[in-house]
Structure formats: C-alpha cells, structure tokens
Amino acid sequence: MTTGAPPTEAAGPARAGASAGRDVVRRALSLLAPLAGLAVLLLVAAVTTPGFYSAGVLQLVLFQIGLIGVTAVGQTLVLLVGGIDLSIGAVIGLTTVVIAEHSRGDGERLGVAILLATAAGAGVGLLNGLLVVRRQVPAFVATFATFVLVQGVITAWTRGAPSGNIPGELSPLGIGRWLGIPVPLWAFLVVAVVAGVVLGRTGLGRRLYATGANERATALSGVRTRWIIAGCFVASGLLAVLAGLINAGYIGYVDARLSRSLDPNSVAAAVIGGIALTGGRGRIGQTVVGVTLLAVLLAWLRQLGAGAGAQLVVSGAVILLAVWLQGSGWAARSPRRIKQRDGVR
C-alpha cells in the first residue's frame, strides 16, 4: 500500500505557488490603479476643457512627460534603495547656470560647458551618497542640505542675477522633434528602457532591490550595498544634469527658479505610479505611468487657469495621498517587515 507525500512536503510548493500568485496579482493591481486614474483624468479633461486635445497642448504634455520623466527615473533609483533625492531641482538649476556662464552663447564652448555641468551633477550625487552611507545622515536631511548648498553656490556665483546666453546648438534637445515626437520624450524613453533592463534583467538590479528591501541582510551576504546606494545618488545627479540640458534648450535662457518644482514632481510621479517609499518595491513601468498621469494632471490644471502655486499644491497633495495609501497598505505587514529587517524568522 502506497502512501501520499507528507503534508508538510506537499504544502511547501503549494504555499510557494500561492505566494507567487499573490505577488503577480499585487503587481498587476499596483499598475492598474494609476492606469485607471489616468483614464479617468483624460476623460474629465476632455469634458471640462474642450481644447485639451489640441496639438499645442498635447505637445506640451509630451514635453512635460519627457522632462519630469528623466528626473523621475533618477528619483526612482534612489527610492528603491530606501532614500530620497531633494537636490534634483538644484542640480538642474546649476546645469543651466554652468551652460550659460561658461559658454556665453558660444556653441564652440558648449561641449566643455556640458562636461563641467556633468561633473558638477555627478559630484553633488556623490556627496549625497557619501553623506548617507559614510556619515549615516538620513537621505532627506543630506539631500536637502546639498539643495541649500547648491542654491547658495548659484546665488554667490551669479550674485543673484544669472547672465550669459544658452547656445542655440542646445535648442534641439529641448524643442526638437523626431518623427513628430519631442526629443525630451525620446530621451525619457531611452533612459526608462535602460533603467528597466538594468533593474529587471541584471544581477545589479537584483542586488539593488535586495539593498532597498533589507540592506543589513544584503550587506551580510557580501553585497556592497554602500556602493549601490551611492551609485543610485550619482545616477540621479547625472539624470538631473540631462534634465537641466533639456530645460535649458527649451527655455533658451537662464532662470534657476523654473527647476524648483521638479523635486516634488519627481517624487510625486514615482510614488503615484506605485514606487514604495520604504524601498525595495517598484518597477520603471510604474514610474512611466506615474509620470504620464502627473504630466496630464498638471497640463489640465494649466488649462483651467491654475498658477504655479496651485500646481505645487497638487503635487504635494499627490505625495501625501501616496504616502497615506502606502502606509495603510503596509500597516498590516509591518511586524513581518520588522522581523525580516532584523534577521528574525
């Protein structure tokens, strides 16, 4: 007479399969929710603002998706390792000032100016990373400090009145089109695809997720978590430089104030798409949806006559809503996460 497998042996694969199924459903829901919100917003915008789908408005929306999207990808990388970057807007402003002050509108000096801006952005990102991993400064405090520092450098350097012109050779990056689509959107798509492949298809991506989910355990397993965290901050700084170049090419003049809203917008786009503020959870695809949703929302507000202040209020409200939703969703599992963090089974 044969006997079946012990219940414990049969239950193991069953539990694993059920857990995998729940993960798939959870990921699908996390993407479907912002997609549903985007669909509703597009419908509301069409009803309340008849001119919303005009060519001019759509081109502006696509540009905003590109500009916000580039910064949101950098912010996503930092959020995935459990941090946050509040210095993005300052780096964008610094990039614009460096380009204008060094080139003085001369296209022949643009290459060197871009190199200087890139070095500055990478330096700010590295400083953020070192403050977080070496000095154990909370990312919120560290990046806010560098934001203030960079703004101070800009003010001292320009004496509060930036001068110089943006070379015309940079304008295609901001206002150019390829196949009828704004170049900034193409830049965002390329950055998003590269980041998505790295996160989803490489060992580096798996180590990055592990670092965000449980840095202590990941470090004990031999992963250089400090390098990964610092690298994410550097990547965010470099992407902020790219956004600064796009912004400079678009507006064609120096105004460091125009970049200040990109800090909250980059955070809002990532978290509204479903990137976890606790680290270790989220996909680039979610960020893409969040960026699109936020860009459409801001464009709709502009069509309704809302000013920059009202748009910042909405971005802040989006962040607060996402924080509240993520907090309530994780509350039931917090004891389990604490045990995992401390290495207790």
TrEMBL record:
GO terms for molecular function: transmembrane transporter activity. One of its GO terms (cellular component) is plasma membrane. It comes from the Bacteria. InterPro entries: ABC_transp_permease. Keywords: Cell inner membrane, Cell membrane, Membrane, Transmembrane, Transmembrane helix, Transport. It is a multi-pass membrane protein. It is found in: Cell membrane. Its main location: membrane. This is Autoinducer 2 import system permease protein LsrD.
